[in-house]
Amino acid sequence: MCKKFILCLNFEHSLMLRKIRIVVAVAVLICVTALFIDFTGFAVRWWSWLAGMQFVPAVMALNVIALAVLLLITVVMGRVYCSVICPLGIIQDCINWMRSHVGPRRSRRNRFRYTKALTVARMGVFVLFALLIATGFTYLAGLLDPYSGYGRIASALIAPVYDGVNNVLAAEAEGHGSYAFYRVDSVPVMWPVMIVAFLTLAVVGLMSWFGGRRYCNTICPVGTILGCLSKLSLLRPVIDTSKCNGCRSCERNCKASCIDASSHSVDYSRCVACMDCIDNCRQGAISYTFRNFKRDVAEVTQPPVDTTRRTFLTAGAVIAGAAAANAAVGKLHDGGLAPIVPKAVPIRKGRIVPPGAVSVANLQRRCTACQACISNCPNGVLRPSMDLASLLQPEVGYEHGYCRPECTRCSEVCPAGAILKINEAEKSAIHVGYAHIDYEKCLSVSEGVNCGKCSRKCPAGAIEMAAVDPSDADGSRLMPVVNESRCIGCGACENLCPVSPVSAIVVSGYEIHRID
């Protein structure tokens, strides 16, 4: 039975596996991109689990099942993750494909050659990544995380274009009496996120255009981790020396630069199992098959002293320990009482983080700043932080909307455990902050107008109207009073307050969320 299965993995079937790999990779890229640009919530409802299958978020969330699946896939099939599941890896394949179809014909093929692995550089970046996580600078470590990097690219560079095209189609459809599309108000992307996204795309794009998978095999920490494990993979590309005619086509077209045609060997720590070499070999000398344990020494190219495994275990222990420790602005308002002035960001006594984050410290330890929660917030409440201690991580602001009690989108899309998944009932019991009133700005006190809008709109019933003057028997003049024990910090009062540019009622956040 085993022999029959091995025979099935011949040249023709290896070509079929390459086609399957391409189809699955394109589908994954589309689905992951939709998690950041789809404002309808459809993508989040149906395949938000795909974000949980990304390696670094799975580590941060201590998602044992996802990690076990990814490690098992790597041990059995090699670095398939880098070619099929990782969106930044798939983007690099797309860039390589474009490079092979652009420019003079002679420059399209035979662009690569075998090079030795840059082990020192790879492990240096990996140790830096591990130390950043261990010391709590997770948002800086997120700059090296491929999933978070692609998330920033999708949310800052792709989503605005997607929203713009949607609004154009909506306007065109409305002109013909159709409502197949509807307009969306996109919150402007903050310039630090756009700069980081553009630099990430530029670095990855240039390295891919000129060096194939050099980014994956030099900078990416996930590539380093999986590269160590892929040396043990059961299935791998194998060169049949009896069929090879020495044309070196496999080596010159290997984007990972891991095939040494002169010795008929493959550096499996860098091979991303793209199977392009199988398609490039006209002799059918390369097949994706089971490893030959008797020939491992001849098949694997290693440096004289291989410290990769030792360093991997050391840095891996640092990451595991850090993960274990982690476990233990433009909308207009008027209200008929004040001139139309855009809302400004108020000074808060404490930073507000989303319900489900548990605490400010928990969010800072686990969040890799992938922007998934910010991209999926339908109310425009979440935005990237500009504080150096939490740069690009999400924080709550009520200048564009307020956190509706029935919305749990951010908790559904977070793959790193920085925002735990909660339902509507659980959210209504979470107090992320409290409201306090500046009576010098409040219209009910400063101008003697019975506004009461904050009291009418408060979903928690935490704001009551009381007499401005207790001695006033008829209670003709009323002012709002906040019951902090009932306030959940949703920001409805602040967002809907008619006073501008800074609301008369402002919400400040709790360091640790309070749960009823």
Walkthrough of the structure:
It contains 25 helices and 10 strands. With 516 residues, it is mostly helical. 45% of the residues are buried. A hairpin with a 4-residue loop joins β2 and β3. It has a two-stranded antiparallel ribbon. The chain has a two-stranded antiparallel ribbon with strand order 2-3. It starts with a helix and ends with a strand.
Keywords:
516 residues, two-stranded antiparallel ribbon, 25 helices, single chain, mainly alpha, disordered N terminus
Figure out the total of helices.
25
Got a strand count?
10
Beta-strand share of residues: 5-15%
Distance between the amino and carboxyl termini: 60 Å
| Rg measurement, Å | 28 Å
Structural class: mainly alpha
Compose a concise summary of this entry.
The protein is mainly alpha-helical and 516 residues long.
